[in-house]
Amino acid sequence: MASLARSVLRAATARSAPAIPALSRNAIPSSSRFVHITADASKPATEIPSSATEPFKVALSPESFKGYKFDVPELEFETTKKELVHLYEEMVKMRRMEMASDQLYKQKLIRGFCHLAIGQEAVAVGMEAGMKPDDKLITAYRCHPFTVQKGGTIKSVIAELLGREDGISKGKGGSMHMFTPTFFGGNGIVGAQVPVGAGLAFAQQYLGADNATFAMYGDGASNQGQVFEAYNMSKLWNLPCVFVCENNKYGMGTSAERSSMNTSYYTRGDVIPGLQVNAMDVLAVAAATKHARAYTLTSGPLVMELVTYRYGGHSLSDPGTTYRTRDEIQAMRSSSDPIQGLKARLLDWGIVEEHELKQIDKAAKEEVDLAVEEAKKSPEPKPEALWDDIYYKGSEPEFMRGREREEIHYFKK
Amino acid sequence: MAAIRDAQAHALASDETACIFGEDVSFGGVFRSTMGLAEEFEQGIVGFGIGMAAMGHTAIAEIQFSDYLMPAADQLVNEAAKYNYRSGGQHSAGKLTVRTPTQGVGHGALYHSQSVEQFYMGVPGLKVVMPRSPIQAKGLLLASIRDPNPVLFLEPKVLYRSSVEHVPSDDFTLPLSSAEVITPGSDITLISWGAPLYSCVKAINMLRSPPASLEAHVPESLREASVELIDLRTILPWDRETITKSVSKTGRCVIVHEAPVTGGVGAEISAHLQNTCFLKLEAPVNRIGGWDTPFPHVHETFYKPEDIRIFDGLLRTLQY
């Protein structure tokens, strides 16, 4: 029935709106619009030291960045063997966690909305590597990896998804409502978090804090009016705010090209400079984040576009294959996967042995499996918890109504 | 006006994280309520304020007219009101107070006159406050700014210039969620908030000593009716106890608000009263408000619950 309605609708649309030639829809051909999103386009620039903690430089691919009224970061990224292994480990863990969520959802243990970031691991892990612990972060959907990167535990994320007491929001939030002291969510209204992020940055500036805010949104939310309101206020007052457009090419089931008059999201801040980043390369994301952070603290806002790709559907109710081809997904997986890309480099450069990586993979799986088991053991929130935290603790009204007289909840007994 | 400015000055002086922002605030706002203390971005302003509040800042946002809250409704309802709940108490927008002028002003027409309190009454987590006078405005505004929950503070704009009182210059607060019995009475309860309270007072006087043209309609016995006039002051969470106590005593109730009667705050209060005072009621609860039309321009006086309509409502309810 639904598909019938859809085909009728499609036919009607086709009649009323003649097809527009692809080129006129977007003057710039798509190949030149994006940075190259390959995962393994970097090589060591200096000799790799034997010590795990001694810094050395990695040359990033010249295709990693594109600037708009902005000098792109230098193409040499200083790191250590230890850090590279850590980045790999975190990405593997994030993928395992999201895969476990997928399984739990299919077992009907997680219900409701659930948006996974499989394929986009380099974004959360790379950004955390480039940020300082006190920097603030706010995003909308696909927030699970950020929650862990900003200090949450895997167990608290899984328990939140399962709606259990040990969840990071006491089991009352769910997929889009996860927070830590430096991570302001997880937001259910796409786009609404962007002006909130500008407000966080204003407070940082006002308090004279030496840290920045990263306000994230997707390619889908990028056309909202409030995003531009936030741009304006941020530039007006030169706030330490990096607007991060996480461009995974699809807003739900609509490709960026079909929704945006300009898909070069990093150029959309008018007088705010922009930086486009190959976000399938975790090192490029880390380097860009570091650079953006330093810039915004002295010179005001920046629009940083992280070009990435999600392997799964928009949410778990979307198979993700009706608006793009399986070939496209497969091509991304085989040529641009952020984990495989880093893995190949770690092996090529002789940083770790294959068996060590296997050990990391195994440990990540075990850690996530244990977190799932522990989360499952956590009880569901008590029915009375329904009334907690509506008003700030201690400032509640005398009572609030339930469905009927007997269900009135008295805060002050 | 001066009282509102005064309250904000106290807030700024006593709290170094306090910050005021909105459209045109640096030249005093359209009504000069921030005078001496800069755009059209309602969603941005409120969202921005939430971000500041979440960082522990006292944020006082001004929206030029309450009619303009519509674009910011998402930020208020989905972000500010739910921040504490959905984060399990980890983050809160409690330090946010959104000030905005509301209700009719005599010439505001469709987009500069509406009452909006009813739209926010069903939003747990938010507090909604409306003062009736300068002293009330100062005390309630300071309480709102210092309340640990996000507060929508609606200022009846017609009173900015018409209402005069000797406002104490001290730093003082008045309690939220607490209605005030302005004049105690025993025969009928008259509830309102904001500007219509002045029409309520006129209606009570009209009942006591009706003008010659109306004398014939008012039996002598009703002229002595003792009317209990209550200012609700906080719309959410509202003071059910004071209202229930009053109507249990009088058995008759008239509720007056400028917003349309359909879906208004009066509907919620009436429903509550039939639930708690059913056997005490001598007459149906009478609601007097704006008509179910857009807020009109030339017909404003016919739309608003002026004294004559309230007077009529009191008579009908007393005679039921």
Looking at the overall shape, the CATH architecture of the largest domain in chain A is 3-Layer(aba) Sandwich
Give the low-pLDDT segments of chain A: 1-32
Structural class of chain B: alpha/beta
The CATH class of the largest domain in chain B: Alpha Beta
Q: Rough shape of chain B? A: globular
Described by strand count, sense and barrel closure, the largest sheet of chain B is:
6 strands, mixed
> Largest protein interface?
A-B, 50 and 45 residues
Number of helices of chain A: 14
Instruction: Please provide the count of β strands of chain B.
Output: 11
| Unreliable runs of chain B | none
What do these coordinates show?
The complex is a heterodimer of chains A (413) and B (320). Chain A is built from 14 helices and 13 strands. By secondary structure, chain A is an alpha/beta fold. Chain A has two domains: 32-381, Rossmann fold; 387-413, no CATH class. In chain A, helix 9 links the parallel strand 6 and strand 7 (241-247). The longest helix of chain A is centred in the first third of the chain and has 26 residues, at 81-106. The model of chain A is unreliable at 1-32 (pLDDT under 50). Chain B is of the alpha/beta class and 320 residues long. Chain B folds into two domains: 2-162, Thiamin diphosphate (ThDP)-binding fold, Pyr/PP domains (Rossmann fold, 3-Layer(aba) Sandwich), CATH 3.40.50; 180-319, Rossmann fold, CATH 3.40.50.920. Helices cover 35% and strands 17% of the residues of chain B. Chain B is built from twelve helices and eleven strands. Chain B starts with a helix and ends with a helix. The mean pLDDT of chain B is 92. The chains are: A alpha/beta (413), B alpha/beta (320). The interface between A and B is large, with 50 and 45 residues. Chain B: It comes from Violaceomyces palustris.
